[in-house]
Design goal:
The complex is a heterodimer. By secondary structure, chain A is of the alpha/beta class. Helix content of chain A is 33%, strand content 26%. Chain B has a four-stranded mixed beta sheet. By secondary structure, chain B is α+β, with helices and mostly antiparallel strands. Classes of the chains: A alpha/beta, B alpha+beta.
């Protein structure tokens, strides 16, 4: 049996503030198994995005352990965490975060180029990914020429570029209308069905309801981690 | 009387000699400016006097025109000059009441190619021409020479300009880098290392600084001709006001490029040392 993709053990994240430290995540333990599709939901400020950033090795816990593929990464330096993100973790954000000066294809190629994938392989993989997200006809369009839904699809294709084990999405439908949001959730379902572990942060109960497992957070803690 | 004279001449069989042609006036050269201001022409005969009242004027023929040696110390003064042979000059200005006026010399200044040999030169001259009073004049202190002062003034201006433009450049780079905050955030979130982005920014800074420096040199070279022509026209001089030499261009590039790189490094470091999520949040 393969180890969990990511496991947090007693993780706490405190932000020092002028008015006193703010605890965003408190002594939280959670395990995301390979192949899961998990949603994290809760009210604003409950710590769900902070948890996602810790799981994605963007942020480091103030205390506790974080294991990715069974390896403790909570004490890794910035360069090692960057390398880990590049190879094993894909990110999708509410604001898409595509590079405006690059075309859709170039945005998808970027992480592959950084990972040292050959040019021919990059092109082939990029073409396949854009086709996968239904944007084969938008290959050479820049982000400003894409709709919100299309831009988010390109962001998903970019997140999948280096075949990550874990795909993390932070409010991926937050800037989209309901119909487009549903299409994006459908795309996540397809990515999950194809074998990638997916964790989505959302405050939309309708989206959370479509995931097999939902983690409900409040005040930096998981209240309920039910699987359905 | 005329009959007698004619008879006398006839009797002697002599013919009165023709009157000798007047002597050709000595040749002089006049400056281009003098020629133009007095509407003179080559071959014209003019009268010159050493006395402002015009007494004892002598005639000279203009044999040529010359461009006076440009003298920055006389900028703005129109050089209305003439060049005479030394003997003509002496004849023109010598005091007729002083019989030795054209034959005596009170002092002669000698400038040596190697000032260090002044003592040896004086010893040698004393031996050869006894009775001469020789005095060595120390080389003037450069600090009070007008153009040395001007040079220092230029240096001060250039230092102030470099410092002010560096501050401006740094502020500009900070703004430019901040505009790319989202881009840096994306690159960091994707997994690009700080060092990788830093090198990228450094390379960009180098290219921009080089391009800027070369553009500046090119602009200076293009403007050089225009500046010189304008001021030469304005002051009617052959002085060169602006000169961009390879050494000056090299110095400008060697100052501008490190400054440009330094500004881009300082500006980007402020961004790169922050966490990826801190960059992504607005």
């Amino acid at each position: 049996m393969s180890p969990p993709v990511v496991e947090a053990r007693g993780v706490t994240r405190t932000f020092p503030m002028p008015a006193g430290p703010v605890v965003a995540v408190r002594d939280l333990s959670v395990t995301i198994a390979t192949g899961e599709f998990v949603s994290i939901c809760g009210p604003s400020g409950c710590g769900k995005s902070t948890l996602l950033h810790i799981l994605g090795c963007v942020d480091t816990p103030s205390s506790g352990e974080l294991l990715v593929d069974g390896r403790d990464v909570s004490t890794l330096g910035d360069a090692a965490r960057s390398a880990l993100r590049l190879s094993k973790i894909g990110f999708v954000f509410q604001r898409f975060f595509l590079l405006p000066m690059l075309t859709a294809a170039e945005n998808v190629e970027l992480p592959q180029a950084e990972a040292g994938v050959s040019r021919a392989e990059r092109r082939s993989r990029t073409s396949a990914l854009l086709d996968y997200v239904g944007l084969a006809h938008r290959t050479h369009h820049r982000p400003s020429q894409l709709s919100g839904g299309e831009a988010q699809r390109v962001a998903i294709a970019r997140a999948l570029a280096n075949r990550p084990r874990l795909l993390l999405a932070d409010e991926p439908t937050g800037e989209l209308d309901q119909a487009t949001g549903q299409q994006i959730v459908g795309l996540f379902e397809r990515v999950h069905a194809d074998g990638t572990t997916v964790v989505v942060v959302t405050h939309d109960p309708a989206i959370a309801a479509r995931t097999p497992r939902m983690l409900s957070m409040r005040d930096g803690r998981i209240e309920d981690g039910a699987s359905r | 009387m005329s009959i007698l004279s004619a008879l006398f001449l006839f009797a002697t069989g002599a013919v009165p000699p023709p009157a000798p042609p007047p002597p050709d006036p000595p040749a002089i050269l006049v400056s281009r400016q003098l020629l133009a201001s007095e509407h003179l022409a080559l071959g014209d005969v003019i009268a010159l006097s050493g006395d402002p009242k015009g007494s004892r004027a002598r005639e000279f023929r203009i044999a040529g025109v010359y461009e006076p040696v440009p003298d920055p110390a006389r900028l703005g003064m129109v050089p209305l000059e003439a060049r005479l042979h030394l003997s003509d000059l002496l004849a023109l200005i010598a005091d007729p009441a002083d019989p030795a006026a054209s034959e005596s010399v009170r002092s002669i200044g000698v400038k040596l190619v190697s000032p260090a040999e002044a003592s040896a030169f004086m010893r040698d001259l004393t031996v050869r021409v006894p009775g001469l009073l020789l005095r060595e004049l120390a080389a003037s202190d450069d600090s009070d020479v007008t153009f040395v002062v001007l040079d220092r003034f230029h240096l001060a201006i250039s230092l102030v300009t470099v410092i002010a433009s560096s501050i401006f450049l740094l502020a500009l780079m900070v703004m430019l880098v901040d505009e790319r905050r989202d881009t840096v955030a994306v690159l960091r979130l994707i997994g690009l290392r700080r060092r990788r982005i830093f090198i990228q920014v450094l390379a960009e800074g180098l290219v921009i600084a080089l391009a800027g420096a070369l553009f500046g040199v090119l602009l200076a070279v293009v403007l050089e001709g225009g500046f010189n022509r304008f001021f030469q026209w304005r002051y009617d001089t052959a002085l060169v006001f602006v000169r961009v030499t390879p050494a000056i261009a090299a110095r400008a590039v060697s100052v501008a490029v490190p400054l440009g790189i330094l500004a881009s490094v300082a500006a980007s470091w402020g961004l790169l040392r922050r966490g990826a999520m801190a960059l992504a949040r607005r």
